[in-house]
Amino acid sequence: MKLKIRRYRWSDLDTVLTLHQICLAQVGLVPGDGVYYDDDFPRIQEIYLACGGDFLVGEIDSRVMAMGGLKPVDTCTAEICRLRVHPGFQRRGFGEAMLVTLQQRAVELGFERVRGDTTLNQEAALALYARQGWRELSRHKVGALVVVNVEKLLTTGVPLDR
């Protein structure tokens, strides 16, 4: 099985929203928990694409089974968010392929670092970020959940002021 990664199209909206809901339910995240939100989906063009970021989907046999967004925070930093792989296709390297592609895209767009967050109960996501060289910045509680903030400096050839 090969994952084909491409840019999001408006016609993907219902599919990516459903994928988001399935993936969060799998790890016990639900509307109203303080972490779960989906109001950005109808505005992907505005929030991700039109302001210098990107939103990618991964297809298997022409069906969207993975996704991830790249949202500018400032001129140097982008947030990687909405990184999801359908539960039936997890543990096959598709999440890593999406993350690597998003990191490469961030470099192409001129970002020097990427940030993201996940919850402590999303062990596979934490392991993926660690394998890719991300470092933990902080943790904070949201209700009963622990949110872990992570960051990775990208290789752009530009020195970073710290």
Can you summarize this structure?
The chain is α+β, with helices and mostly antiparallel strands. The chain is built from four helices and seven strands, in the order E-H-H-E-E-E-H-E-H-E-E.
What features would you describe in this structure?
The protein has 162 residues and is α+β, with helices and mostly antiparallel strands. The chain is 27% helix and 33% strand. The chain has a seven-stranded mixed β-sheet with strand order 1-2-3-4-5-7-6, with helices on both faces. A hairpin with a 2-residue loop joins β6 and β7. The radius of gyration is 15 Å and the shape is globular.
- Return the average pLDDT rounded to an integer: 91
Largest sheet: 7 strands, mixed
Number of strands: 7
Strand order of the largest sheet: 1-2-3-4-5-7-6
Helix content: 25-40%
Principal-axis shape equals globular
